[in-house]
Amino acid sequence: MRESRRFPIPEGLEGMRADAALAKLIGISRAKAADLCMAGDVEMDGAAVAKSDRLEAGGWIDVMMPAPEEPLIPKEELVEGMDVLYADDDVICVHKPVGVAAHPTLGWEGPTVIGGLRAAGYQLADAGPTERKGIVHRLDVGTSGVMVVAASERAYSQLKAAFKERTVTKTYHAVVQGLPDPIVGTIDAPIGRHPSSGWKFAVVDDGKHAVTHYKLLEAFREASLLEVHLETGRTHQIRVHMAATGHPCVGDPMYGCDPNLAKRLRLVRQWLHAVTLGFAHPGTGKYFEVSAPYPDDLRFALEELRG
């Protein structure tokens, strides 16, 4: 239910645009504040306020408050192919299959790690937003591999800090097209939104700092198996960095793979797998490591490349 609320305009907002000031005043995004202004839901001293109008200190602003958004509630259903690799009172380590999201998001109606764990009876930490309680990191829907989920509050706090401070060991295996040169290297290139395709990412000058380390494990005629370690954790980081070097992940059409090679290997997603995750266990403080084997589709493609 919507309600009208009145706010005094403090001196600190004097001369500020209405949308920017409203965002600060009532704690919503500037875009939502602009929408309220354009809908005629904001008045200053009885007169309608446009989003670009400047506020005057000492006056009053009336806002028809937006209805609260319904929280995304994870679907609680068992997830086919998702295995629990390890579980205790603090952490749950899972092998996330391809086609499964870490948690619900707007527009995603498929299975999630959270929903699968809850359906299986696992207790997750209460910390975090409703739709992703216990989630401390994510894997892309199209990437398989090991994930850790917090089962306790202390685990959530400690693991979030560990990922932020980059003390978690994250090891991926990727099959990329061609042979990288050098065969052991570091890609240090900023990543941001693609300049012409907002649903993609790219190496861009004003992007966020991103560092990827790789080394060759096995070379084939058309592709290479790499071990990859992430120093940072940007969205699509491995896929973007490898594509930027001219060696996209096999089976990744979003970032320029050869569709004929992917078809021959029967791949309908990128050959990318989170193999190992290592961290200080929140309960014992000791280093703890868990690994996930290759799923069938990646193993088949690898064997095809080996001939």
UniProtKB/TrEMBL annotation:
Family named by the database record: Belongs to the pseudouridine synthase RluA family.
PROSITE patterns referenced in this protein's UniProt entry, alphabetically: PSI_RLU, S4
Taxonomic path: Bacteria, Bacillati, Actinomycetota, Actinomycetes, Mycobacteriales
Enzyme Commission numbers on file: 5.4.99.-
Keyword vocabulary terms for this entry: Isomerase, RNA-binding
Keyword GTP-binding carried by entry: no
NCBIfam families hit by this protein: rluA_subfam
InterPro entries found in the cross-reference section: PsdUridine_synth_cat_dom_sf, PsdUridine_synth_RluA-like_CS, PsdUridine_synth_RluC/D, PsdUridine_synth_RsuA/RluA, RluA_PseudoU_synthase, S4_RNA-bd_sf
Domain Pseudouridine synthase RsuA/RluA-like, chain residue ranges per copy: 90-244
Catalytic activity: a uridine in RNA = a pseudouridine in RNA
Function: Responsible for synthesis of pseudouridine from uracil.
GO molecular function, one term: isomerase activity
Domain of life from the UniProt record: Bacteria
Protein name: Pseudouridine synthase
